[in-house]
Design a protein that fits this description.
A seven-stranded mixed beta sheet has the order 2-1-3-4-5-6-7, with helices on both faces. The chain is an alpha/beta fold and 376 residues long. Helices cover 62% and strands 9% of the residues. It binds nicotinamide-adenine-dinucleotide. This is T-protein.
């Protein structure tokens, strides 16, 4: 039996080597695609091409008795790699006439990401860091665009402190809140203004499929090239009014980060053995630990600022706290019937989304499980 098994394993190894060769071939083709896209200014993420390609590979796989989801998983993972490497060929510069871009806070995490991307696209980028204010006037005097990317609680003050910018200079920010910075920018600068919120952190492999939120300020016709430039980088633009954005972020960021914070605080104070918890984890709990734990690997000031950005956020968190208390009453009363009733009510509210989320999370869990190594 051992001989038979070894022979089969040798054959599998040979096939795997072929897969590696094919992947190398595919990646080198992708590199060429990157070069062509860079020359012609085409976005690195082409949703229609991606959907059509996946559909035909699924069909071909099915005909060969290969599960369609298997080829889709392999290709999606390969495409992620491709998106990350496509940026190596740089990007077409959509506004070559633009005078230098000045990033205030450009040595920081997100400012650094945008500095790299602008430079990869052929723009000249200067940084106005916290120690550079003595030179601020000369740094911005010929700026074509000024990007503010400093900690949230300093943003307003930094915008107020900016020297006078050239009339046609675009002033924008990358802050996680939008209404206040946008109002401050409109107040200090009479030229084009736009509020931006990249919905990602500095740890993304590429901007493909990432969302950049855009709240118009003034003279939108003057910065359409910028939004197109982001699309070339692979990002999707989501236009929204600044106040509406901030209301959405109350749930999407403030409440979510706060519940992670409170859960982490609770874990730390209960002080279970984390190694044991990890070992005992179901895949979903492992993901939950990761989602909560990743918060504590990041900058507490950024999250403190996001959570406490407005009274509206704090009021929402307090309402959540109140509902938590109401839900606890069900437990105190050992009222299973009430639990089921409330559960069904929420399920109804989720509607079709609950099944969609079930499917999506199943895929995530399968991928999380693939990454686990149980050996020593
Ligand atoms: P960061 O702390 O990494 O960078 C901020 C930079 O600003 C630092 O280099 C700091 O030295 C500099 N700075 C501080 N005071 C300054 C001053 N007075 N003048 C000039 N520079 C000054 O923070 P970050 O995570 O890059 O966040 C920057 C902005 O990006 C914030 O508004 C944040 O809301 C937004 N943002 C961050 C993320 C993220 O995940 N990091 C995601 C989306 C949006």
């Amino acid at each position: 039996m051992a001989v038979e098994l070894n022979e089969l394993r040798d054959q599998i190894d040979a096939v795997d080597k072929q897969i590696v060769d094919l992947l190398a071939q595919r990646l080198s083709l992708v590199e060429k695609v990157g070069e062509v896209k860079s020359i012609h200014g085409l976005p690195i993420y082409a949703p229609d091409r991606e959907a059509a390609m996946l559909a035909s590979r699924r069909e071909e796989a099915e005909k060969r008795g290969v599960p369609p989801q298997l080829i889709e998983d392999i290709l999606r993972r390969t495409m992620r790699e491709s998106y990350a490497s496509e940026k190596d060929s740089g990007f077409k510069c959509l506004n070559p006439e633009l005078r230098p871009i000045v990033i205030v806070g450009g040595h920081g995490q997100l400012g650094g990401v945008f500095k790299r991307m602008f430079e990869l696209s052929g723009y000249q980028v200067k940084i106005l860091g916290s120690q550079d204010w003595d030179n601020a006037e000369s740094l911005v005097k010929d700026a074509g665009m000024v990007v503010v990317s400093v900690p949230i609680h300093l943003t307003d003050g930094v915008i107020q402190k900016l020297p006078k910018l050239p009339d046609d200079c675009i002033l924008c920010d990358l802050t996680s809140i939008k209404a206040e910075p946008l109002a401050a920018m409109l107040e200090v600068h009479a030229g084009p203004v736009v509020g931006l919120h990249p919905m990602f952190g500095p740890d993304i492999p590429s901007m493909a499929k990432q969302v950049i939120i855009c709240s118009d300020g003034r003279a939108p016709e003057t910065y359409q090239w910028l939004l197109k430039q982001f699309e070339i980088w692979g990002a999707s633009i989501c236009a929204i009014d600044a106040k509406e954005h901030d209301n959405g972020m109350t749930l999407i960021q403030a409440l979510r980060h706060f519940t992670s914070f409170a859960y982490g605080l609770h874990l730390a104070q209960e002080n279970p053995n984390l190694d044991t918890l990890v070992q005992l984890s179901s895949p979903i709990y492992r993901l939950e630990l990761a989602m909560v734990g990743r918060l504590f690997a990041q900058d507490p000031n950024l999250y403190g600022d996001i959570i406490m950005a407005s009274q509206h956020n704090i009021d929402m968190i307090k309402r959540f706290h109140h509902r938590f208390g109401e839900a606890i009453k069900i437990l105190d009363n050992h009222d299973k019937a009430e639990f089921v009733k409330q559960f069904e009510g929420v399920s109804e509210w989720y509607g079709d989304y609950s099944q969609q989320f079930m499917n999506e999370s199943q895929n995530l869990l399968k991928q999380a499980n693939d990454a686990i190594h149980r050996g020593k």
